[in-house]
Amino acid sequence: MAKPHVVVIPYPAQSHVIATMELSQRLVQHGIRVTFVNTDFNHKLVTSNSLDKESFGDLMQMVSIPDGLEPWEDRSDLCKLTLSIMQTMPHKLEELIEKINKEEGSRVSCVVADDCIGWAIKVAKKMGIRRAAFWPASVATLASMLSFQKLIDDGIINENGETYMIDYI
User: Can you tell me the distance from the alpha carbon of 124 to that of 111, in angstroms, rounded to the nearest whole number?
Assistant: First the structure.
């Protein structure tokens, strides 16, 4: 039986990449083969830093796909970056998975995607691959985000996040 092979893909921001890289390293420690997918731009940054590649053997592979922006374009414009990512990366991820699946004994068994890039989950679903969303931020942030609708429904805040209650303790 072949080892599980997980494709891990972060949102291309430093804290997201670091958190998903840590997750990937833990998966490798449990004998799971990981293909870590970065944007071309971030791949150059990550691989230029000292990464102890020997400790992962052949279980960790670092690859990249284009984010749709030219190398000189400003990636700090998150709206522009996100739109470019959504137009370019889903197809490129699908191509990458198809390429991996053609290799002998290397079929992708799961895609773990940063929760900020739901399109990667859709690609995995379309391809019939198991999938999981990974939340790279704190659980307090996730709990807050999941509570917004209840706070609106309960009349504590409005749709703009403004409070209705003026009473302070």
Answer: 6
